[in-house]
Amino acid sequence: MSAAPLPPFNREAKAKLTENPNPTFEYGQKVEATEDGERWLEGEKAGWTVIDTSKEEARKIYTLMISGIVPRPIAFVSSLSEDGTANLAPFSWFNQVTHSPPLISVSISQPTSGPKDTAHNIKTTKQFTVNIISEPFIENANITSLDSPANVSEWEISGLTKEPSIHVKAPRVKESAFSMECELFQAVDITHPDTGKQTGTLILGLVKYIHLRNDVLNERGTVDFAKLKPIGRLGDISYARVGDAFRLPRPEWAVEGEKIKEFLKTTQ
């Protein structure tokens, strides 16, 4: 039985800022105080599924984690081997670690056949670039995840363009509006606590240069997410685009402290 056809990609959709979900929130307010919150808590009546990871197959754990830890940013990593062979691949176990020093992390799983080219290249050459994927070239980027033979160039089949970097030898993706040139800060090999086998490598990259396309910047000189059109990763083979967003300032004790003290008195 074939799946129902999907509607076409909505090219007219515009990401925008909206009011936050509960603008009347007060200290100590219960989730069920709003209609949305009440409906959300109703779902608990369906019960819980609890997974003991020590007794579950690795593949099942993988599918559960990638479907629940969402959305995930994607590191589109460009690297070079010792002999200068270029590699390009996307990884969704990626995030910022610190801003001072500017560090990012990319986690690369290791199949039973041995380290992936990206992990090997970064460990040996100590350099790579991370490029953010935007909507207009997601298909170009996705094709680089192909499990192709070593003699097949991901760059060629992707149709993407190599752009020389300033500090590292690995090229940037010219079509990416936000790219980072990185040096290897630390590589942490992950071994399974039961088998002792290596299952992946956590790469910490020191960001040396950031390249930003001017047309995705706002008046403050930072990136406008609506202009960048970044793509995120969901579970199975699903991707996500950025839709509506809302701004929610973090509370400061200097401003809210007295109000909080007064509220806490009412709970005693």
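the 2nd protein, sequnce then structure:
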Amino acid sequence: MIKVTIYQSSEGEIAGFSMQGHAGYAARGSDIVCAAVSVLAQNTVNSIEHFTQDSFTADVDEENGGLYLKMEPGYSKGSKLLLDSLILGLQGIEEEYMDYLDVIFEEV
């Protein structure tokens, strides 16, 4: 199962996210859940880097299926939109494939 933790402040501002694990929906190379989650997360990080001037820290652990993003406080509306879009997409996948993806929110 892929576990995604969305880190947010008490005011609801997203501080970042982490994801770990493999979906296990299908064999490697054929797992649509893993592919969908990976594309959403990687595209979010790449889009924040390409389309905004916001500062963040990101780390990838390909072996364990891990990705971590930490946003610096005071980021732009563009980054907020991209992060909100990521969450919307992840929650949509979670609704359909709840045995393979778990999205949780953690206050930081």
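The beta strands are 2-8, 14-20, 56-61, 66-71, 101-107. The chain has two helices and five strands.
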